Amino acid sequence: MTTLPEQPSKPERLSTPLEGTGHRPWDPQAPIDAPLQLMQTQVQAAWVDYNGHMSESCYLLVFGDNSDAFFRTIGIDEAYRDQGGHSLYTVQTQIHNLREAALHAPLRLTLQLLDLDDKRLHIFHAMYHATSGELLATGEQMLVHVNMQAGRAAPMPADLQHRLQAIHQAHAALPRPKQAGQAIGIRR
User: Is 81 exposed, middle or buried (0-12, 13-18, 19+ CB in 10 A)?
Assistant: First the structure.
């Protein structure tokens, strides 16, 4: 077994770039992008591994930031968590790393809402090279709406359900991404 060395000056906890920014007011009359175009960034030096490209854990980090942008689009932020005691938790993730992303590569992310019910969301991230348009990676996630005090799944409030239904309806005409729902295994 390998023991990892302690990291110097660890932050007290992980945060996202959008933490503390609140959420945008929902406008039911506004057009809904299909898929949602929520975020652009570039590959940071801290994300590049010894192979000279973005490390696999950092793809999930960027998809997590894209999820946070989505949460803020639908009205979930720190106030939602602190005042109502609810949040969305990730219960399953699958990432497909399709192409390398080099230091400072510009990234553009999209998010498609594939499905939902009263407690769960099935979302799909796509990460593109922002200049070439090449698909670099995809991330698929199952999220659960949680009552944090009870530590269990809880139905989403009606206003949140209405927002999500509007997004789901806007995304219904999109083709299902070919990576969505794929099982992992060695093909024979």
Answer: middle
> Residue 30 corresponds to which tokens in the numbers above?
């506004």
Residue in the structure block whose two tokens are 């106030």: 79
The pLDDT assigned to 183 comes to: 87
* Domain limits, the chain: 36-171
Q: What are the angstrom distances between the C-alpha of 181 and each of 19, 39, 56, 126, 159? A: 30, 24, 20, 14, 28
Alpha carbon separation from 86 to 76, 148, 152, 186 (Å, rounded): 9, 5, 10, 39
The stretches in the chain having pLDDT less than 70 are: 1-11
CATH superfamily of the domain spanning 36-171: Hotdog Thioesterase (3.10.129.10)
pLDDT in tens, 19-72: 888 888 899 999 999 999 999 999 999 999 999 999 999 999 999 999 999 999
